[in-house]
Hints:
- The structure holds 2 protein chains of 2 kinds.
- By secondary structure, chain A is mainly α.
- Chain A has helices at residues 23-28, 30-44, 53-73, 83-105, 107-110, 112-115, 124-154, 170-194, 197-212, 227-231, 236-247, 254-279, 282-285; one strand at 10-12.
- In chain A, helix 2 (30-44) packs across helix 7 and helix 4 (83-105) packs antiparallel against helix 11 (236-247).
- The longest helix of chain A has 31 residues, at 124-154.
- Chain B is built from 9 helices and 20 strands.
- In chain B, strand 12 and strand 13 form a beta hairpin.
- The longest helix of chain B is centred in the middle third of the chain and has 18 residues, at 195-212.
- Chain B is globular and about 80 Å long.
- Chain B starts with 5 loop residues before the first strand and ends in a 29-residue tail after the last strand.
- Classes of the chains: A mainly alpha, B alpha+beta.
- The interface between A and B is large, with 39 and 50 residues.
- Strand 1 of chain A pairs antiparallel with strand 4 of chain B.
Amino acid sequence: MTHVPPDYEFVIRPTRGWFHLDLADVWRYRDLLFLLVQRDFVAKYKQTILGPLWFIIQPLLMSVVFTVIFGKVAKIPTDGLPPMLFYLAGLLGWTYFAQTFQSTSATLVANAGMFGKVYFPRLVVPLSSVISNLIALAIQLGTFLCFWMWFKFFTTAGSTFGFTSDIVWIPLLIVQISALSLGVGLWLSALTAKYRDFTFLSGFIIQIWMYMTPVIYPLSQIPQEWQWVAVLNPMSMPVEAMKYMFLGQGVVIPAYFAVSVGMTAFLLVTGVLLFNKVERTFVDTV
Amino acid sequence: MSRPIIEVESVSKRYKLGQFNAQTMREEVEQFFQRFRKKGEAAGIPHAPTNSSEFWALKDISFSVEPGEVVGIIGRNAAGKSTLLKILSRITEPTSGEIRIRGRVASLLEVGTGFHPELTGRENIYLNGTILGMTKAEVKAKFDEIVAFAEIDKFLDTPVKRYSSGMYVRLAFAVAAHLEPEILIVDEVLAVGDLNFQKKCLGKMQDISANNGRTVLFVSHNLTAINAFCHRGVFLDHGRLTEHGAISDVINAYVSSNLHNKDQTLSVFDAPRSGGDQKAITEAWVENKSGQVVNEALIDEPIFICYRFNADRILKNPGYGFGVNDMLGQRIFSFANYVTRGEPFADAKEGVVVCCIPKTRLLPGQYIISLGLGERGGVSVDYIEQALKLQIISRDIFGTGKMFEAAHGYVCVDGEISLRDA
């Protein structure tokens, strides 16, 4: 270990207030962050035959189911796009959000045993979930692009869609989705630490949230005068923007987007502070 | 003189008892809004709990540790030892008080924290090392040493879920033992693993403190290990610091504190009998030289094994017997007045018998005392095979800084080693 300066001193005392966030400490544990990502990734598919292929199969199956149920049976329009592609594009951002939300919201309870025995900055664990889900997102993005090319060049629907130049913003969009899922996940994690009711709630939240988000339907299906309601959901714009960037169809209104980004920032900052506050003594109450 | 490496100042820790339910949640929400209303006057002062009862796991603890010291923390169950270690390791915060730490802390409160069963030994070494605060590069530099210490080189690429529990513990301790913090905090982790490995771990810890000048805080119920390994001690009792100082003083305080414990006097009336025709022995206990009832004794301390009997008839030429067995049931020694005393005792129906042993000379460990009561002609009146438990604690009786351990045999007899002119 590196040498400690002779005047090094660390004080342990009860902390009061909300603003004792030590991000430098998180940075010191960056090696742990990446090993946890590796652990998540490796451990998840150990003793499976298909391994990481599951990252591809899961959203594909979802899209097929959606195509049959929402496209063929319920006949929900898809903005004139090939349904399979439409659902895959919608699920791209949504799956990433939902997975990250679910793993970060379980952080404190799922790791209680470990947190009760050793100190490290707790924020490392949810951050590692964000990163390992990013890898899954990258794999899904690759799958999506294969389908995109197939539909573009080998089917008659090829002329109905295409990239828009706004696709250059995709990294920022992913950053926003990460921030949002982390923020909401940390909120729930902090609440779950003391009252397990929120565990049950988080399952519901994510299900209902999906139907409130334009994943299986386009935002254009909602009457204009009601679209502002949909926009109170901070995931609406990112999901719609994702479809717009890849397929050229979608309702993206800058003012609405600003609202979504503002809500994301608020949820992230308050989520981190609340988590940080709860984390300090949570082993006593878990 | 350098400053203390750890300074603990009036640290207290309160736990809330009871369940968290709708009521505690309502209280919390109310408190939250009250704080906003009263902002300015009472901000920052922790609110008094209203309904839920509370429990002080630690109360006003203060002590300091100098660099390079090995400090043993002893106390009975629920004395607050683990809570103290958790606060020192930053796992939870104190309710009040302050601790200054002048060095990095690595704590080993459990072996194998963060081990993932699906990952291989190799992967877990890296993961566990970084969880304990090392960087990946530091683990890499120590990797071969860790593997050699754990003796698992053949199984390095096998998932740890297939490890035997011994291999698992060895690997886990090996990772932790190769941390290089200024302060190492170790909870009762050595209770796991076989005897050989326990020794290896203790040796490693001794090495850490003696050769590298690091500070070690060590919690254990094993007084022999504490005595052998620590320079100073902290004795916690019901969350309060009862004694703090040289290890021998602290251990003495701990051992003699048992006198408050009435449980040491055993009513053996209902104990299972292995002989005799009646339940004549009603009570049994061990005293130290001050007449205090104890269940622990130092290796060279006088002890008095006592029992009270009340028979249904007057016993003619009564026989009183005492035996001491080890935990494996092997008889180490016994006393019987037929053998040790020329004159017979007077006939008696009831009384208290005392067997005085000036020095037990037993090596440290747990022993079982059996009691017998008989009559003329070898008639057994009452016999209890497992009446009392006695813990013998080692001590530096030769003034050499070294002492006997359980592995050295059964007893420690008088004698010395010298050279004769050839």
